[in-house]
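Figure S7 source data.
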Amino acid sequence: MTVGVVGAGISGLALTHYLQQQGIETVTFEATDRPGGMIQSRTVDGRVLELGPQRLRLAGPVKALVSELGLTDELREGHTDQPLYIYHDGAFREAPLSVRAAVTTDLLSWRGKLRVLAEPLTRGPQPGESVEAFLTRKFGHEAAHRVFEPLYTGLYGSSADEMLVEYSLGKALKRHGIEGSILAAVIRYVLQGRDPPPIVTFEDGLARLPVAMANRYADRIHFDTPVEAIESAGDGYEIHTPDGPTAVDAVALTTPAPVAADILEPLEETLAGTLREFNYNPIVMAHLHSAAELTGHGCQILPEAGYTTLGMTWNASMLDRDGVYTAYLGGSERRQLLDRSDEEIGAIAAREFEDLHGEPADVLSVNRWEPGMPAYDQSWTALDRLDPPTGIDFVTNYTERAGIIGRIADAKRTAERLAEP
Ligand SMILES: Cc1cc2nc3c(=O)[nH]c(=O)nc-3n(C[C@H](O)[C@H](O)[C@H](O)COP(=O)(O)OP(=O)(O)OC[C@H]3O[C@@H](n4cnc5c(N)ncnc54)[C@H](O)[C@@H]3O)c2cc1C
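Tokens for the predicted flavin-adenine dinucleotide complex:
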């Protein structure tokens, strides 16, 4: 059996790795000249910048993969226990991510904190409910708006009133086995004395992980080879690229939905149409350098503060990255930012950094991701109609968990399933 893998981001590479482990032949096609997809690290003026995810949590599936690739000794540990801040009412206030911070933070009033304790009395997600409505019903308006909404929606650039809980947060809770009270689950976790997995990266950035996989399987990954179409051929499929057709028994797609739609159009128009329904939010980010000595993982900025910056990772503090700060701008509410030049975006990020932190910042780089991240708005109800034919699999950040841990676990599960007789 040969599986054709479309895309050499973390999903496609991990799938290539696990299929090899299962003794299944693979042929992987990547449109660009480099591995990693959204995981990209660059060195600018001697400083390591992450264009995608900023760090890894060394959870089970990641730890195992890092070890299988012989990279354990290259890991570089970050500061797992630093605070995260939320900018509210003119000041940075600590997010209540520990018992101590939950008691001491001035982000919430006492009334707001007490309201959180009523969460176990509330019901789980309801059909058609927005993330905003769900979190407000569970934790009260103050905690929902100042803590949970910015922490959850930040990655997707969506506003909580647009996101459907059933297709986003609700799925995440289910995956963690949380069907009832979220607060009770958190308390159980704390009482068991479990610590979150450590935050890690590599000396030259996270791209070390995809690069290691690409090197190991160099003989079966074709770079600069975009897949243009997939067609039926006998009992299997033909993958069409500019180099010609390749016959495979099964195909695994890892590309964003709009790209998958174009590729699958010749095979199944209805499936392609469904994939085209999904809305994405582009991500705009600016890497800054500043002498500001901030301690923490970063910050989220509440929308009413009026900044274009939605949040920042303080790489300088979390990962000891020499004065580097990563700002995320725009989101679903400020799409017009995409019309601005990189210089203009960099200038906005630097100006707002100085305004927020009282220290100047220089722009190191500006980067955009399009289509970006799934918006998980009303358009994602189309996920219920996503029904690929036998032998076509989606191993993607929109059919399963988005993050690196989820991508690796999804690839492993898919490889095991494809190996079943
Ligand atoms: C700025 C940013 C920060 C993030 N932070 C976090 C975080 O903190 N936590 C978290 O959980 N997640 C985070 N993510 C999300 C996470 O990085 C992604 O969900 C994950 O890396 C997606 O990996 P993937 O392999 O599924 O897809 P991708 O990385 O998108 O890979 C798809 C690959 O397919 C290739 N391709 C496209 N078209 C074709 C074609 N026609 N033929 C062949 N190949 C093609 C692409 O070039 C790409 O290499 C972040 C993402 C970004 C951009």
